[in-house]
Amino acid sequence: MAKIKSNRTSTRKDVIISKAAILFREKGYSATSMRDLAEHVGVEAASLYNHISSKAEILQEICFRVATNFMTHIEEVEQSKKSEIEKIEAILRYHIKMMIERYEEVYVSDREWKHLTDPYLSNMQGQRRAYRQRIGKIIEDGIQKGEIKKIDAPTAVLIMLHAVSGIESWHRSKRKIEGDQLENSMVEILVGGLQKP
Amino acid sequence: MAKIKSNRTSTRKDVIISKAAILFREKGYSATSMRDLAEHVGVEAASLYNHISSKAEILQEICFRVATNFMTHIEEVEQSKKSEIEKIEAILRYHIKMMIERYEEVYVSDREWKHLTDPYLSNMQGQRRAYRQRIGKIIEDGIQKGEIKKIDAPTAVLIMLHAVSGIESWHRSKRKIEGDQLENSMVEILVGGLQKP
DNA sequence: AATAAAAGCTAACAATCGTTAGGAGGAAAT
DNA sequence: ATTTCCTCCTAACGATTGTTAGCTTTTATT
Questions:
Q1: What is the Cα–Cα distance from A174 to B29, expressed in whole angstroms?
Q2: A25: nearest CA in chain B?
Q3: Strand C, CB < 7 A, residues 17-56 of A
Q4: Where do the H-state alpha helices sit in A6-117?
Q5: Do B146 and A158 form a contact (C-beta atoms < 8 A)?
Q6: Mutate: best of B121, B194, B195, B196, partner A, most A CBs <10 A
Q7: Are B95 and B161 in contact (CB under 8 A)?
Q8: Helix axis angle, B153-164 relative to B118-144, nearest 10°?
Q9: Which chain A positions have a beta carbon within 8 Å of B149's beta carbon?
Q10: From the CA of B56, how many Å to the C1' of D20?
Q11: Which domains does chain B have, with CATH numbers?
Q12: Which of A91, A109, B83, B111 gives the lowest tally of CB atoms within 10 Å of its CB?
């Protein structure tokens, strides 16, 4: 018998979920089988069901944990006394940090949420839309205050959020560049643009 | 009996592939079944195999058609007499146009290529890496000529390419903004940045 | 009108899927 | 020492997966 390792800080369920996040990222939710997951956890497939109620529940946990994190953070930023461009930069930096430090979950949450089923699917769609609109609002405020160029705010949001998900390639290639450096480069390019002034 | 419609320009195989692209985008490659696809084509699942040899082949066709398109285009751009920043802009505009006009294929090619199997998987990984490096080279040339800011070129490539895939949300939301406008906004933001000079 | 080729059908295959039932072994609580 | 709970196991279920075989029907060619 091979029990799932459990320290004080992480329950057996947490172990399953974090292993699942790795597999979901590598192969996608649908292409990952419960027997696959079980093997990586070191247990038979049926044993997983002592800790989770379904495969769908695992995806739900991953997606909503991440979504809650971002929602909490954007609220803090909104209530801070930063300028609008600083708020955008703070949000950007948070996304990059999350993508670097909690790569698996964040990536899965971003790419696999479509496989949620309905009460959760609608909820997630709503949260994502709301999140984008809140960033859009900050950008529009920034434009009105003259801090930010007169650009199409929803397009800017879309670029910001998707640019960050490119960190995936960074994770794969493991170039010499450090995480902090990556963060600064990304912020510089997105905030400052490519062209020399 | 319901035969697959075929005009002069598109074979039955093409019809299957383009329907498959729609489904692969909506639900992902793994979550799309051959019976699913058959239903949307208007035929029984087994009948598909008179036109294609496997599910995998469909994904291969989609991915390599798109990859070839981008490869051909970047070669044209490289050999043109544009400045480096203009080359980057041309590549960017091509990506945006492709993402708008041939959404399904391009999106699937970008997100589902991981499900290719091995001679094709390695080939695609190689092509993607080569493509990124060629863009990176243009950026580095641009930096050396003083046209482009001193930024980390691979990071800039990563941002460019992933920003474009954000057009997905544009497709879904169908905002009032037109394709041309979207293209211009994206180029302006990526080339010029958010911040007011 | 006869024939060949193309494209459809039904039925079925082996494999794999998520999940459940029922029981065994070990740890914690009594 | 006995009971209770937790975790794991084996075995199996019904459903679905991609695909093949064999036959029929439609379309194209002669």
A1: 27
A2: B114
A3: 32-36, 45-46, 48-49, 53-56
A4: 12-27, 34-41, 55-79, 84-101, 103-112
A5: no
A6: B194
A7: yes
A8: 120
A9: 188, 192-196
A10: 17
A11: 12-50 (1.10.10.60), 55-192 (1.10.357.10)
A12: B83
| The pair of three-digit structure tokens given for residue A77, joined into one six-digit string | 């930023």
Residue carrying structure tokens 């999140």: A131
Task: Confirm or reject contact between B126 and chain A (CB < 8 A).
Answer: no
Distance B13 CA to D27 C1' (A): 17
Residue B32 amino acid letter:
T
Q: Which positions on chain C have an atom < 7 Å from some protein CB?
A: 6-12, 16-22, 25-26
Q: What is the pLDDT along chain A (197 residues), one digit of tens a residue?
A: 445 555 555 788 999 999 999 999 999 999 999 999 999 999 999 999 999 999 999 999 999 999 999 999 999 999 999 999 899 989 999 999 999 899 999 999 999 999 999 999 999 999 999 999 999 999 999 999 988 888 889 988 998 899 898 888 878 776 767 888 888 888 888 887 656 55
Helix (H, G, I), strand (E, B) or coil at A195: strand
Tokens of A19: 């292993």
| Degrees, nearest 5: CA angle B51-B53-B59 | 95
Q: Chain A to chain B, count of Cβ pairs less than 8 Å apart?
A: 152
Q: Complex ipTM, two decimals? A: 0.89
- Asked if residues B20 and B58 have their Cβ atoms less than 8 Å apart, the reply is yes
C-alpha to C-alpha distance for A97 and B4, rounded to whole angstroms = 50
Contact status of B83 with chain A (Cβ, < 8 Å): no
